[in-house]
Structures are given as C-alpha cells and as structure tokens.
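Subject: 3-dehydroquinate synthase

B.,
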Amino acid sequence: MTATVLHVGGAAPYDAVVGHDLGDRLPGVLGDAVTRVAVLYAEPLAELAQPLVELLVDHYDVLALGLPEGEAAKTASVAHDCWEALGEHGFTRSDAVVTVGGGAVTDLGGFVAATWLRGVRVVHVPTTLLAMVDAAVGGKTGINTAAGKNLVGSFHEPTGVLCDLTSLETLPRGDLVAGLGEVVKCGFIADPEILRLVEETDPASLTPGSPVLRELVERAIRVKIDVVVGDLKETGGTGGHPGREVLNYGHTLAHAIERAEGYTVRHGDAVAIGCVYAAEVAAAAGVLDPAVAARHHEAFSRVGLPTTYDGAPFDDLLATMRVDKKSRGSVLRYVVLEDVARPRILEGPAEEHLRAAYARIGGPA
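Prediction pasted inline below.
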C-alpha cells in the first residue's frame, strides 16, 4: 500500500507521512542544505535507530545521541547534555535534529532543536502509536520540572514527520494499546467515525498491519492537523471552540496522575482515565448527558485502556491540577464536552463536582 501524505499547512508547512518502510524518505525530507544531523533516540531503541543512522551517514555528518528511556529523558540536565554535544560538533543553524522514538524523545528532541541557536530544523520519526498521533505533529516541545509535566517548552514545528507503521511491530502490546488513548480522545473531541470504528472492530485485530489501525492513525493525525493549523500557539479558537486546548481533553487529571505515580504510568493510560474523568465532571456540572459519559467508559475500556484510578488522594491531585497550563491564576479550566465533537471550556468547576467525578472513577476521598 502506498504511503499517505497528510499536509500540515500554516506559516511553516510540512508533511506527515503514514505508511510502511519509510526510512528512505528521510534524506529527502532533510534536504541538501543540511551538513550535520544529530539523531536523538531512546537508548533501548539503538537497534531500531541504527539503520537510519547508517542511511544518513551516506549523506551527512551524523552525531548519534542515546537518551534515557521514557520521561527520564525530559529533563533540563539531558537537554543540557544534548546542547553541549551539538556545540562540540559544530552544529550551525543550517543543520538538523532527527528524533527516533516515542513521545518523550520527540518532546525532548524538539525542545533541543527549538532552543539550539534559537531554532534548527527537526524531523520526527515516531516509533510508538502514541507519538505518531500526538507528540510528533503540532510543534509542541517540552521538558518536565519538579512542579509538573511539560511546564517548560516552546512551539517549534518540524520539517517533516515519518510515521512508519512497521516500527510498531516490535512495540509491546501494552504500549500499542496505550497509544489508542489519544486516538479515542480524538474521536470524542472531533471525529465520531473513530468511535464507530473502535466500537465495531474486534480490539484484538488492531495490529500494526491492520487497515483499521492505519485508518485510526490517519484520522487521529487529521484531527490534530485541523486543530493546530487553526491555533498553533494555543491562543484560542472561535465560536466558543477551545482551539488547540481541545487536544488537552483529559490531560488535566492525566498529568496529575502521571506526576503522582512518578511517571511510571503510560501517558495513554493516564489520558484514558483523564477523559473519563472530564466526562464525569461535565455530567456532574449538568453540561453533558450521562449517557455520553458512560460511552467514554465503554469506548476506552473496549480497547483495553483503564477507566478507573484509586492511586492518590484527590487533594494531592487537585494541587497539581491547579498548576495545569490551562489554569488562569487560581481558576481551574477544564476542556469538557457538551456532546461528541462539541467541546468547550468549563471555567471554575465546583469542587463538589470535581470530587463527585473522582468518586465516579473509583478514586479515594
């Protein structure tokens, strides 16, 4: 099957390509003006990154940098080490970064590219389903701090994105399922056809070679493209639509859970719980029909994602949610739904509704 090219418009247009065995496209995406390329990859993915490094060596001066696995890569210390390596190897503004890995590598590598010489080009080669449908497209980069997740970062659009579905063949099933958290989220916020596919497809058949999985990936990426092209820097939508903030549906609680669990919970799992929680908040506030909240439980659990959480007291999570990026001063702001594909912002929800929703997903008092 031929590759699908999804164009991302805007001030710095690029293409997100979805297909199989896309490595040979990488030099063409980087272009002839580049002399040096830094390949940033998660150290456990060295074997997966090596063929790309060998391909690039024929065209560029290549620096391969292994990174810690997962969220451990998203620190100021790791970013500093990358900057020092780029400096030692003489990277200039016309050179480039290539990321190979999941969302953490994409976030960190994008941040390094955004900040080195105030911005060099970056190409993302996501190797997880989560990174393909979330981190790789849209230009958000970031690292974590002790206060929370992704609180330091910048907007820096890539030169291109290569979503090679072949790389998913070595992905543990739990990680593949976790990636579906962001996919199902896209169904609720914008594309009901995603929900129909999820609800009518045997979850066991959603494998890397599955035409349905490919369609889900492409649909989720299209949802993100449509949103970010209209509101790249999260300044707000029109007509009551939250704009880019809609992509944070479920993330307010999700990020708080991730921090409470020391980032040992898969992001997609946390997002699934967070979306269900957001639906319960909206239902408690009288904004959303309880039947749609119930559909959240059913859709996420159908593909094997968690929909309950009892790992931390609500007060601990609330303290973290108060420093969420969507908050304004002391006012909490949640992305919620009025119905499927009808998102809005709920400002200053009543604490009783927040607590009631937490109880609905099994949380302790």
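The CA atoms of residues 89 and 288 lie 55 Å apart.

T.
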